[in-house]
Amino acid sequence: MNTKLNKKEDAVFKALKKFYNTYGKMPTVRELMLGVREFGINFKSSRSIAVYLEKLEVKKLVRRNVDTKKLEILDGFKKAFVDIPIYGGANCGVASIFADEYLQGTLKVAKSILKGKIDDIFAVQVSGDSMNRYELNGKNIEENDYVLVDSSYKPSKEDKDVPVLAVIDGLATVKALWYLSDKIGLFPKSSKKEFRPIYLTAQDEFIINGKVIEILKVA
Q1: How far, in Å, CA of 179 to CA of 56, rounded?
Q2: Domains defined for the chain, CATH in brackets
Q3: Has this prediction a pTM greater than 0.70?
Q4: What is the DSSP string of 39-72?
Q5: What is the pLDDT of residue 85?
Q6: 200-to-66, 154, 180, 193 alpha-carbon distances in Å
């Protein structure tokens, strides 16, 4: 079968892969129409996109999943991604969500985002807005975002302003960790004034489950 791509097919395929590499999911037709412009193509209708997706299917570069009907990339490009487990939930407000350890699904994440770390990474979805002014990699931690957590992180007394997932009395929360002289502080960074720090000592029941290394936005 001839899999050589013409200019428009190539632009659609490159736009698909770039979007998938960036966001870990396939683009909508509208997002794909915007994406191909970067590769010198300007489609005037969504039908044009559909036509070229069908051509990529014929050339067995993409396919529709039989169960979900969603588009999937078939070439070796997908080897650049891993499935990250999603566990429980975490609050970016008061610590009011129980930190259960049941697997709730997976996120497909580009290996380039993980920077070589795979085995120790898991994800949680946050609620609340006590960290909506904490900036990490150019993004803020906001309601319904997924955060990637590195469970190999070990806190040290030199740590200041480190975003962590903490479990306090069985409840999970994301806050900025600061080591103080005789205690640990978990601080909010919010546009709202209602949130207060949490202060802990060695005698308290808490676990630092890991360091937040990335924020994944939910469209």
Answers
A1: 54
A2: 7-74 (1.10.10.10), 80-216 (2.10.109.10)
A3: no
A4: GT---SSHHHHHHHHHHHHHTTSEEE-TTT--EE
A5: 87
A6: 51, 17, 10, 21
